[in-house]
Amino acid sequence: MTDDRAAAETAARSGRATTTQRFVLWIAILGSFVAFLDGTIVNVALPAISDELGGGITTQQWVVDAYLITLGALILVAGSVSDAYGRVLVLRIGLIGFGIASIAIAAAPTAEFLIVARGVQGAAGAFLVPSSLALITSNFTGAAQSRAIGIWTAMTTSAMIVGPLIGGVLVDLASWRLAFLINVLPIGATLVLLARGGFRDTRHPGASIDWLGAALCTLGLGGMVYALIEQPNLGWASPAIWLPLVVGAALFAAFLLRQRSVRSPILPLDLFRVRNFWTGNVATAFIYAALALNGLVVVVYLQEGAGLPATLAGLASLPMTVLMIVFSSRVGTLAGVWGPRLFMTVGPLLMGGGALLLLTVGTDFAYWWQVLPSMIVMGAGLALTVAPLTSAILGAISTERSGIASAVNNAVARVAGLVAIALLATIVGGELDLDGFHRAAIVTAALMIAGGITSFLGIRNPPRPAHAGPTDATPGS
Question: For the Major facilitator superfamily (MFS) profile domain, which residue ranges apply (predicted)?
């Protein structure tokens, strides 16, 4: 046992964190905060970006999806990269890469340049959250670890509040470009803490990385998403659409086939034999596709359709975020007693109802009567859903595989959002006017309801702790 690990266990027994642990916690918080902050800022900045660089709704889709393609594909391989090269080194590379990409985005002369930089930023971001969590789990034990993860969750979730506010203010008073430069501040602080922390990195010499699988996944997703985004402009008959779609689908199929035989798969397919795991991930796909669609459509329409400034448009969904932050931990406790099935059913259905309330938005816009009720209802549904969903998925898999299970679920959520945004032009009918906004609300509601029905039919409550068996559920149970 290393000296650091022994110190961590001593601190866990005493209830006090060591100096190294405090450094680790702040590094994990700031490193992840960067990725969460950027995700909330970008939606607020989309109208200003397309106004300056051109491209309309297609540019807006690519600005979001270029990031999600590389993030969703590479987040699966991040764990094995951290094991092979060390978590601190990988986190440092991710931070530097994210910072350089952020500066490139802020200086982008064209939409095409910005989109490429967003792809690089997504690749760097893929290593921030997994590496941050890995630092916590390797430096904290027992109750101290649970507390550290709780603090990490609360602090990083706060990015959902400050992101739209900071982004909106910068867009309104200065430039959307400064909204991306704001990332440089927490990145710089994290790099300083990494240099002063004084803790040793850990590597596993036997770890292997499936780079070919990662390439197949990235290129496959990229080809299919390109076809879905550009199809409304070129039509299905164009070789520039059906060829990338076919090649992308073939590459992604090759990726899945490779995962069945490769020694260290980045997507272990055997996990999907566990009922709550695969059902929970199907529900995740529906729910997070709906959240991604709703998050982009609401903030963009409130600026372009309702005429709100970026700051107010970014703050429109604040009630939803606050409700989730306030009640998620309490719901998680109740789900531990009653089981996740009820919450995973009622929560998405409630969010579906909240999405339908957006149909009240009309030409005579009034936030307080047309949008706020939807945000409150959706926030209540989100608070009921998130913690039980995570608990159901990770609780179905043995503890030693929880890292890869979490990465898979995270990737499913990102790819679901990626596909939803890629289909945006098709969903809204080519233009995000009032009719397109209503169509998006109906699709959002349908996806949420599908997530609730999937949970009701597929999720099984685990046995009571007193009678619980092994952590890893029996396949197909």
Answer: 24-463
Q: Residue 452 is encoded by which pair of tokens?
A: 């609730």
Contact 167, 41 (CB under 8 A): yes
What CATH number is associated with residue 135? 1.20.1250.20
In angstroms, rounded to a whole number, what is the distance separating the alpha carbons of residues 63 and 455?
A: 32
**Same domain, residue pair 151 and 94:** yes
Dist. CA 440–CA 424, nearest whole Å = 8
pTM: 0.82
Instruction: For residues 284 and 389, give the distance between their C-alpha atoms in angstroms, rounded to a whole number.
Output: 8
Q: Containing H/E element for 224?
A: helix 211-234
Please give the residue range of the domain that contains residue 227.
Answer: 210-263
Does residue 238 contact residue 93 with C-beta atoms inside 8 Å?
A: no
Provide the 10 A C-beta neighbour count for residue 465. Answer: 8
Residue whose C-alpha is closest to residue 284's, from 116, 454, 48? 454
- Condensed to tens digits (0 to 9), the pLDDT of residues 329-338 reads 788 888 888 8
DSSP 432: -
Tell me how far apart the alpha carbons of residues 170 and 177 are, in angstroms, rounded to a whole number. 8
With respect to residue 268, please indicate whether it lies within any of the assigned structural domains. no
Say whether both 89 and 164 belong to one domain.
Answer: yes
Please state, in angstroms and rounded to a whole number, the distance separating the CA atoms of residues 414 and 37: 16
Note the pLDDT tens digit of each residue in 151-204. Answer: 776 677 777 777 888 888 889 998 999 989 988 888 998 898 888 766 666 666
Helix (H, G, I), strand (E, B) or coil at 82: helix
| Widest distance between CA atoms in the chain | 68
94 lies in the same domain as 48: yes
Written as one string, the DSSP assignment of 45-56 is HHHHHHHHH--H
Q: Which tokens hold the place of 199?
A: 């803790």
Residues 153 and 215 grouped into a single domain: no
What separation in angstroms does the CA of 306 have from each of 59, 135, 172, 300?
A: 21, 44, 16, 9
Mark out the alpha helices in 339-423 (DSSP H runs): 341-356, 367-370, 372-395, 402-422
Q: What is the 3-state secondary structure (H, E, C) of 370-381?
A: HCHHHHHHHHHH
